[in-house]
Amino acid sequence: xxxxxxxxxxxxxxxxxxxxxxxxxxxxQSNVTSRIRRLEEELGTELFFRKGRGIELAPSGRVLLEYxxxxxxxxxxTTAAMRQVGESAGELRIGTMETxxxxxxxxxxxxVRAAHPGLELRVQADTSAALTEKVLDHKLDCAFVAGPxxxxxxxxxxxxxxxxxxxxADGAGPQxxxxxxxxxxxxxxxxxxAWQRASGQACADVMEFGTLEGILGCxxxxxxxxxxxxxxxxxxxxxxxxxxxxxxxxxxRVPTGMVRRRDAPPQVVLTTLAAALAGGAx
Length: 282
Hints:
Layout lengths: L2 H13 L2 H8 L3 H15 L4 E4 L2 E4 L1 H25 L7 E6 L1 H6 L1 H11 L4 E6 L2 H9 L5 E5 L7 E16 L9 E3 L5 H12 L7 E3 L3 H9 L5 E4 H5 L7 E5 L2 H4 E9 L6 H13 L2
Parallel strand pairs: 3-4, 3-5, 7-8
Antiparallel strand pairs: 1-2, 5-11, 6-9, 6-10, 6-11
C-alpha cells in the first residue's frame, strides 16, 4: 500500500470529490481516479459509493480513513524526527487567531527563520475552535488559540495572557447596539455574549467580520461594539476614535498559547517558536 495512494484517498475525502482532490494535489483527475481504483483493487473492497456525479464514503472507506490518517501522521512524525538529526527542512503548518498574528506571531516566525532557515512555514488564520479541530485532525502542527484548552489528545502551553476590553466609538455606548465580532468559534465572541448578558445589555444583533480592521472600522463609526485585546486597540490607527472600558478579571483575562497533539514527536522548531513568543510578550 503506497503512501501516495493513501494521501490521495484522504484528499478525496477531505475535499469532497475527485476534481477538488486533483486540484489540491496538483495533478490531473485521471491520476486521482486510477490511484483510488488501484487502492480498491489492492484492498478488495469499494471505498466510495458513486452517486450521480458525486461520491459518498463507503463503510470500508470510513475504516480506511482512520488508518490512513494514522499512517500519514507516522510518516510526518518520521520526517520530523529525521529533521532533528540533520539540517532543518520540510514544512511547519501553523494556525493562529487574527489577534495573535497581529500582536505576537511575527517575532516568533522571525526567530524560527533565523534558527531553521531551511524550514518552509505555512500560516493560516481562523477561530480558536476551528484551529483546535485542525490540530486534532492532523491538518496543523500547532496553533495559537485562546485557552484554556482541555482535551486528552492535546497539549496547551500558555504563552501570554491577553487583556480583553470593551470597545465602542467615542460618544456611543454598547446598549442596544450590535456586537461586531469574528464568526462562530471565536473565543472572544463567546465572552462578549456572556458579558452582554451579565451586564444587563439588550441582546442586539451580531455582525460578523473576518478581519480586525473591519471590526474596528465599523465600531469606530458607531455601528456597534466589540471585545478586543487592549493592545490591538491601542495600536490601531483608529485608536483616537475608540473608547476602551476595562472588564472584570473573569471576562477580561484570556490565557493564550500553543496547542499541539500529545502524540506528536518533540520538535526543536516548536520549542524555538514558543520560547520566542513567551520571551517577547510584554
